[in-house]
Write a structure and sequence with these properties.
This protein is α/β, with parallel strands linked by helices and about 130 residues long. The chain has one domain: Cytidine Deaminase, domain 2 (3-Layer(aba) Sandwich). Helices cover about 25% and strands about 35% of the residues. The chain has 3 helices and 8 strands, in the order E-H-E-E-E-H-E-H-E-E-E. The relative contact order is 0.21. The protein binds zinc ion.
Length: about 130
């Protein structure tokens, strides 16, 4: 499965993640269909932690509303790993409740950022999705 993310959406979340580091950064990726991410919707990490993140339920609600009003769907959520690789941690897998969205992880551990998307179903990482 291939997912397209626009350069604008990617640059937007990259700037947010770099700005928030070393705290983990997070948000939603929205798009016209579930294979195309065109909008990075920034969210606050209410944990303010370097090792995990939580969304603010009010912001999640606002993001869903924003998507609906703009004819977009939620492609997935994303968060940054400021100092670890771009793959789901045990906690990320445990907290991945929605099998219908993708989980994007941006690693800033190396000089060159690494951005991957995963499908997590029933506590298992099902697929590593190719981004273009
Ligand atoms: Zn994580």
């Amino acid at each position: 499965m291939e997912i397209t993310i626009t350069e604008e959406a990617y640059q937007s979340l990259l700037a947010q993640a770099r700005n928030d580091a070393p705290i983990e950064s997070c948000g939603y990726l929205l798009g016209p269909d579930n294979k195309t991410a065109t909008v990075s919707y920034p969210m606050r990490n209410i944990d303010q932690s370097e090792e995990h993140f939580s969304f603010d339920p009010k912001e999640q609600f606002a993001a869903v509303k924003y998507a609906r009003q703009n004819g977009l769907v939620i492609v997935g959520n994303w968060h940054s790993h400021p100092a670890s690789p771009s793959r789901p941690s045990a906690e990320d897998i445990r907290l991945a409740f929605d099998p219908n969205i993708l989980y994007f992880i941006l690693s800033l551990a190396d000089e060159r950022p690494v951005f991957n998307a995963f499908s997590i179903v029933g506590g298992e990482v099902k697929e590593k999705i190719q981004l273009r």
